[in-house]
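Saturday, quiet lab. Running sequence design on the C-alpha cells for the scaffold JK sent over.
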C-alpha cells in the first residue's frame, strides 16, 4: 500500500505516520499514514479501456486503525447514495485513489477534454 503523509501537497502540513510490518505477510516494512479528518475527499479510478472516470466524494470522518488489510485506511461519510456505491463497487475492482479536496469540477472538465464520461458511483 502507498499513502502520502502530505495529503495537502508537498508544501502542505505533514500528517502523522507509523512504520509497521506489511499486513498480509508480516514481513518488511509498511507505512501507515494517519489521515486528517473533517475534509472533503474525492475518490477516482481511471478506466482508459472504457474511456470513463469512476467518481465519488465523501467527508473524511476517521483514520481507521485496524490490523486487517491495508495499513492506511480512511472512513468517510459518502456524499450521495451509499447503497449505489456498495452495489457497484465490484464493477471496477477494489482499489481507488483518494484525493483531499472537492475536485468534482476539474474531474468533469478533464473528462470533457478527453472525450470520456464520468460515472458517479454514489
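Result came back. Writing it out in full:
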Amino acid at each position: 500500500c502507498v499513502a502520502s503523509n502530505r495529503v495537502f501537497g508537498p508544501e502542505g502540513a505533514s500528517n502523522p505516520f507509523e512504520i509497521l510490518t506489511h499486513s498480509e505477510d508480516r514481513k518488511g516494512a509498511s507505512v501507515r499514514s494517519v489521515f486528517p479528518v473533517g475534509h472533503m475527499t474525492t475518490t477516482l479510478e481511471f478506466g482508459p479501456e472504457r474511456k470513463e472516470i469512476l467518481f465519488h466524494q465523501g467527508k473524511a470522518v476517521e483514520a481507521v486503525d485496524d490490523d486487517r488489510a491495508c495499513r492506511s485506511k480512511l472512513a468517510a461519510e459518502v456524499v450521495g447514495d451509499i447503497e449505489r456505491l456498495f452495489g457497484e463497487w465490484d464493477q471496477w475492482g477494489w482499489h481507488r485513489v483518494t484525493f483531499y479536496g472537492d475536485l468534482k469540477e476539474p474531474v468533469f472538465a478533464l473528462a470533457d477534454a478527453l472525450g470520456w464520461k464520468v460515472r458517479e458511483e454514489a
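Notes for JK: Helices lie at 82-88, 104-114. The two ends are 24 Å apart (CA to CA). Ask whether to fix the surface positions before the next round.
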